[in-house]
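Aim 2 progress update. The chain analyzed this quarter is reproduced below.
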Amino acid sequence: MTHILHVLDHSLPLHSGYTFRTRAILRAQMARGWEVRGITGHRHSASGPLEELVDGLHFHRTPGKPATGNPVLREWRDIAAHADAIEALVQQWRPDIIHAHSPVLNAIAAQRVAKRHAIPLVYEIRAFWEDAAVGNGTGTEGSPRYWLTRQLETHAVRNADAVAVICEGLRADLATRGIDPAKIIVSPNGVDMDQFGTPVPRDPALTAQLGLEGADVVGFIGSFYDYEGLDDLIAAMPRLVRARPRAKLLLVGGGPREQALRDQALASPFADHIVFVGRVPHDQVEHYYAQIDILAYPRKAMRLTDLVTPLKPLEAMAQGQLVAASSVGGHRELIEDGVTGTLFPPDDPAGIAAALAGLFADRGIWEDRRAVARAFVERERNWSSNILRYEPVYQRLLARPARTRAAA
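Predicted structure tokens:
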């Protein structure tokens, strides 16, 4: 039986797009009959034992706490600690494949162990770490740190036996760095249809509690980062309310921009049309999806959003929801304008308002739009079929007479 060890940044019980993708991969691989475990580094912040089962998945943790001090030295110390933990688990469990997931620090730690034990290594990139730092406001494009991280990423890709990326934008970028496209597979974001494929009915009591009776509801459910463009969505509300007086905006979640967004909403002339819920338990999220007529994803235009496809619009489509999103590259890979969703210009509150008002004025298309979008997810972005993309890569690596590392 094939043993797959996934090297991770963080995992369940933490909730994020990263952990939900991981959960889907591990569950699908277990259903395939493979033995699967995950090991997280020091960036996993949830308390718990060094080995635990969460939601039926087997996780190991890197012991100790994150290093402190100089950022570069701190990260190298964390890599060393992560590598030591991977080494101990490899000696105990003997995986056939090591599957490391971004950020690049995980790949570096995993490669040290994989090379020592001649174990094939797959490196999966969900976003380039340097671009994620810019999107999160913790880095600057073109800075020395940005350049160094980019070089580490390229080096890690060259030294992996195979590379998986979540979208065509990332594969195209790696090709410009001289990486052989044949070495790269695209394993796109998908949805567990068993979990998201059966929408719940709207709860009238929750509708009343939120003050949404009779409203045209636009919503966002997710993390409040700057690159999500929620400030543009709030700025669009005056125009939208003037066109659709019953329009309301429901924001569910939290994050670094939450207070700034609350302050912006409070200063809006239509503050009473903007409802903040805060974070909600994951098992309650579907009830908030049911309150929303149109899910809006107004991501700003930048390298991160042009290269990376998000998970949330797919989950919304699986829930039978209407989706409207900015026309950044990551969204264009997921949404066909006028077919599975509506695209509007990024960084443009007036364009957002016009697109949303147009959708509310044309309810006759809603039923067909929802059905087409859901069928797209079920057919092309369902994890039960997405998982098949890894299998030929694993088989090819395991069939090598000598499991040598890829040439640098």
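The domain at 3-190+383-398 is CATH 3.40.50.2000 (Rossmann fold). The CA atoms of residues 26 and 193 lie 15 Å apart. These observations will guide the mutagenesis experiments scheduled for the next reporting period.
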